[in-house]
Design a protein that fits this description.
Layout: H1 2-20, H2 24-28, H3 81-96, H4 103-106, E1 114-115, E2 121-125, H5 130-135, H6 142-153, E3 162-165, H7 189-206, E4 210-214, H8 216-222, H9 229-232, E5 237-238, E6 251-255, H10 258-263, H11 268-282
Parallel strand pairs: 2-3, 2-4, 4-6
Antiparallel strand pairs: 1-3, 5-6
Helix pairs in contact: 3-7
């Protein structure tokens, strides 16, 4: 009897895990929704009515003040692939030795970012987590696995996009015990200010056509006069950087962070609507079913 109960419990646990890790297309977009161009000025409504309230640990009510420093012209407009690769590698070395904020003293490995230097789409999250802190790569944990599925659903691959975070080192709730799981938090305003030049330089070097801000922290750090993720979704914004000058206009759109989608799968449909807006602009048909 006890063995049967354990077998049932194990089967139920595997079922729940499969539900959490299901393909993004299956849960978020069984049928591709039609997206009009130009994008609507207001967020597209959820198929289930109003969006549910954000998680209790949300940081969307935090305001990040941009450092309005004089912009310095860059030579990225004349950069070829080799120049971009070299510039990003040099920047990654600088990030690896950075101690501008306390995160530099508690991280295990800095996480500069990675991907296609000529990418049309760049995904920007808030900061590295437990797994990223050990591998030095962005979005490699459970949230990263879901992001991979989101990218594939768009008809792209991880190798065709660029992925980075606002903060380059792991923000921890308990920095004295980096070995603990569940020790992640969002970067604060001071940490974002210290890392700001790095992400801005990466955006200017890659100079994608579109930046997808993953979550409220990234969105509010990059979009001027941002109030909340809900107010930003469903429309494109022109990206303005503080420390560098973009060689050509870049559009940015905000959507949910993959970690938030794991906590609340109902938001996947809304995230898919946001991604479809980028797909329509680029003429992407999405993954084959």
């Amino acid at each position: 009897m006890a063995d049967s109960v354990r077998e049932l419990a194990g089967a139920f646990k595997r079922f729940l895990a499969a539900q959490e890790e299901d393909e993004f297309l299956t849960t978020a977009a069984p049928v591709r929704a039609a997206v009009s161009t130009p994008a609507p000025a207001a967020p597209a409504p959820s198929t289930t009515g109003e969006l549910p309230p954000m998680a209790a640990d949300s940081t969307l009510d935090i305001s990040f003040v941009h450092q309005h420093e004089p912009t310095a012209p860059t030579e990225t407009s004349t950069m070829n692939k080799a120049d971009k690769t070299r510039a990003l590698a040099e920047l990654a070395q600088t990030i690896a030795s950075c101690t501008r904020c306390p995160l530099g003293a508690t991280r295990l490995i800095a996480v500069p970012g990675e991907g296609n230097v000529n990418a049309d789409v760049m995904f920007v999250g808030e900061g590295p987590g437990f797994d990223e802190d050990r591998q030095g790569r962005p979005f490699v944990g459970r949230a990263g696995q879901l992001l991979d599925k989101m990218i594939l659903a768009m008809g792209l691959t991880r190798e065709k996009v660029f992925i980075a975070n606002i903060a380059k080192c792991h923000p921890m709730t308990d920095p004295l015990h980096p070995e603990k799981h569940g020790n992640d938090r969002a970067p604060n305003a001071q940490e974002i200010a210290c890392c700001r030049k790095y992400i801005e330089q990466q955006i200017a070097i890659v100079c994608p056509k579109y930046v997808v801000a993953l979550g409220g922290v990234a969105a509010k750090a990059l979009i001027s006069d941002a109030k909340s993720l809900g107010a930003l979704r469903g429309q494109f914004h022109t990206l303005h950087l503080d420390s560098v000058e973009l060689p050509k206009p870049v559009q940015i759109i905000a959507t949910f962070h993959p970690a938030a989608l794991l906590r609340n799968p109902n938001w996947k449909k809304d995230a898919w609507i946001d991604l479809q807006m980028v797909m329509d602009k680029l003429g992407l048909k999405g993954a084959r079913k």
